[in-house]
Amino acid sequence: MFRRVIPVARAIWPITNSCLNTARIISNEIRGYSTLKRTITAVPNNGVTTGLLSTNKQILDISQNLAPVPVRTVTKFSLKRGKRKTVKAALKRFFRLHWGGWIRPKVGRHKKIWKKSPPQQRRLRQHILCNGTQSVMLDKMVTKFWKKPKYYVEDPYEPYHTREEFHITRKKPLVRH
To answer: Cα 93 to chain center, whole Å?
Structure first.
């Protein structure tokens, strides 16, 4: 079986190599490296790659107009003490319940309220429970200080801090009638 594949691989190797070279050049241009001069000299002048230079130029023009995507990652080691740091955006947008779940308000709850009906305004005031994947990610974004239960006076989330319906998180013993 391998004897049949090797001649085919040798036949398409120049095409594959030139495509990989073009992809490498495009990725370098997106990162900000200037390799346009090397592109013209490095790509051989055959029928396969002459059309790639014009598309390569178009892709480069588009890639220079792209704005960087904001990323809120965890600082693994702080410069002063070498500890992990909390992502403040996670604390602003999400709230951790005592049992480990995270909740967040609905999106657009303050936008154009005058346009929304009273039932829709009531639904927008409700909160959404994050799923398990999101909760694990948010737990990684905060330090152990924020994972400990915090007790506030007249906490509106007090009934939601316990989960008595699940046997794993139940605090009170189950009463059977």
So the answer is: 15
